[in-house]
Amino acid sequence: RNKALIRELSTPPLGSKDLFFPTRYSQSFFEQCIACLWKQQCSYWRNPSYNAVRLLFTTIIALLFGMIFWDLGSKRTKQQDLFNAMGSMYTAVVYIGVQNGMSVQPIVATERTIFYRERAAGMYSALPYAIGQVVIELPYIFLQTVIYGVIVYAMMAFEWTVSKFLWYLFFMYFTLLYFTLYGMMTVALTPNHHIGSIVSSAFYAIWNLFSGFIVPQTRIPIWWRWYYWACPVAWTLYGLFASQYGDVKDLLESGETVEDFLRNYFGFRNDFLGVVAAVIVGIPVLFGFIFALSIKAFNFQKK
Questions:
Q1: Which 8-state DSSP code applies to residue 182?
Q2: pTM for the full model?
Q3: What angle do CA 149, 154, 160 make, to 5 degrees?
Q4: Which tens digits make up the pLDDT trace of 52-69?
Q5: Which pLDDT score, from 0 to 100, does residue 21 have?
Q6: Distance (Å, whole) CA 182 – CA 271
Q7: Inter-residue contact 178 to 284 (CB < 8 Å)
Q8: Is 15 left (phi over 0), alpha (psi -120 to 50) or beta?
Q9: 211-216 long-range CB contacts below 8 Å, 24 or more apart?
């Protein structure tokens, strides 16, 4: 009787249709993005050990650099003054940028573990999760940029014009953004944040070497110069330095103008800022795209 009942229940009645759902997920793509963004907002707001610490770190570094390089931006009579100014920009990018890239990695690793469980439950797909993880970083990085930019720009006494101040914030914002997204990307490409930190650290060393500060672009051997243009930090220093000093006509003690010295020694041109700005915007877009693609394609869960 049981076997007969099973056969009867296994046979669909006449006129019936199989269950069909038009979409895999219960909500639309937009609703999934909103839900993931709200989830990340709650997660970040409840994680002061990450956000408050990095804002405090940025404030301390800004005050420290401001005191070390006090009134540096107004000094334009010696070549050494320009080297010091570029050094202040270089150290800020390295200190704060690398700190952003390293500190976000354990956060992304933890969130990815939750993502595996919730995606398996059919709550949302990989792309809305990746969008939420990237977008939630934007306001925190903007706040971080404003804190650092206002303090340092005032204490170092760079030229107070609207365009130069906005250029400074622009390049610092997208620099901190691509460092953060780079840290997220390396975690998405590796099984855990420990391996991700090892991989990212190797590239940080190469970025420092080809940034254009240790060895300027004009003095890098021609067969290695291609990597200078592939180095994100090099584009950052180009943008920051050229936007502040690329149009300055003051004479140095050597007899050449600041503008000519930048062009001859570093290879920086003020009229190239538009291209530099486009590249600086494109770098975090590229890292964010690779992060989303990696989250979707790779699955490192063990069970």
A1: H
A2: 0.89
A3: 95
A4: 999 999 999 999 999 999
A5: 64
A6: 29
A7: yes
A8: left
A9: 211/90, 211/237, 212/237, 212/238, 212/266, 213/86, 213/87, 213/90, 213/237, 216/265, 216/266, 216/267
pLDDT band at 189 (very low <50, low <70, confident <90, very high): very high
- DSSP structure class, residue 222: T
Length of the chain: 303
3-class SS shares of the chain: helix, strand, coil, % to 5: 75, 0, 25
Closest CA to 301 of 157, 112, 101: 112
Q: CA separation (Å) from 135 to 31, 109, 198?
A: 15, 17, 25
* Strand partners for 251: 257
Euclidean distance between the first and final Cα of the chain, in Å?
Answer: 40
Coil, strand or helix at 11? coil
